[in-house]
Amino acid sequence: MTTAPETHASSPGRPDSRPRRRSLTALLVGEGVDYMGTAVHRVALPALAVLYLGASPGEVALLAFTGTIPALLVSLPAGVLLGRHPLRAVLVTTDLAAAAVVLMIPAAAVLNVLTMSLLYSIALALGSLSVLHLAASMAAVPLLSDAGRLHRTNSSFTAVITTAGVTGSALGTVLVATVGPARALLADVASFVLSACCATRVRALPAPDRARAVRRPMLDEIREGLRYSAKDKVLRHLFTALTATSIGSGLIVTLLAYHLLTAVHVGTTGLGVIMIAGSLGGLTGALIAPRLTRRYGSGTVLATGFTVHALMQIPPLLAEPGPAWLMALTVSSGGQFIAATCVGTTQRSVQQWITPQHLRARVQQTALWLGQGSLPLAALAAGGLATLTGVRAVMLTGVLVLLLSAGMLWRSPVRHLTVKDDGGAL
């Protein structure tokens, strides 16, 4: 059976647990505030483009694409930068820079100089800062986790940002309706400032090994992270499954709302109910993942999670108008996100368990580059294929990709992982 070495929790030089816990609390609070503001932004920005600038559907899609493309362009360099600069400095700097960038939108609206070109530029800058900030916050988690609690700490991180996302979406909707989308973005500005204040209290983090990092070109360090991910038999199969799952999910999610509204006729209320069920499922999955891993092992949780996630995409393909199907879609949405967050927290913990500390950030960013970086490309492919073959055909293709990914994982070494936490095994 495959097990993972103990590489971090009990290593010499780690700070005392009490300061570490205080720093972890500050990190989680800051990230929760940050994600709440980001959720407000995601509601307000497209509303601003449509209501104030009269953006076309194509322009709105391009705005969304511009905000997500940094995941493909910035993720790998971010892994190297985290090894060269203190994580706390990266957290604070990206938060303050993001606050300044977002503040340009209400300022431009007041001055009557707001344009779609400006929104595209802001979306690209903010997306890049978000990739770097997320990389730093995720890299800080294993360094602040107590021994034997890494998976639970990752789950707490996921639960915090999931809850913040749901709350922020509701807050954003209210703010857009009451004060308008431009003023609503001031809440996002405030969230970045508060998050930066919390980040200044994250003190129990080791300093980077500057001498080792600066001697080598960035491309060499990126290649080292890619090579390690490709050579390790667990990471290689896990990252392949994650990439295929991102592609399959991208094909489905891009067209899901359109399909549910036009073919299944769930209405905006029904769509909202389905989305809320998904959010609640995400929170549930984050909370139960450590318990499932302790009982069944990481490999079983990952393989089962990938499979359930794929199967839960089938009901939307079969759905017809009516309350019974709405209930089925609500259940499948919740089940899909339970599985997705179980997979997300478990695979991230597996990465951290089996990767040497000096490579963790680069391996983490390799996973994000493969997963999140493929989403905008899948979205573009979904739009093009839908015009040729139809919406259901594209979504069916996505389901088949997901099922293939799950099947490959069941036959891989990942399936036999018995890791429970911090490298412990049966």
Task: Explain what this protein looks like in three dimensions.
By secondary structure, this protein is an all-alpha fold. Helices cover 80% and strands 0% of the residues. It has 18 helices and no strands. Helix 4 packs antiparallel against helix 16. The longest helix has 35 residues, at 17-51. The protein is globular and about 50 Å long. The chain starts with 16 loop residues before the first helix and ends in a 16-residue tail after the last helix.
Structural class: mainly alpha
Task: Give the overall pLDDT as a whole number.
Answer: 84
Q: Report the uncertain regions.
A: 1-15
* Main sheet record: none
Give the tally of β-strands.
0
Rg is: 21 Å
Which of globular, elongated, flat, extended, rod-shaped describes the shape? Answer: globular
Beta-strand proportion = under 5%
- Terminal CA distance reads 9 Å
- Counting DSSP H or I runs of 4 or more residues, the number of helices is 18
Helix content range: over 70%
Order of helices and strands: HHHHHHHHHHHHHHHHHH
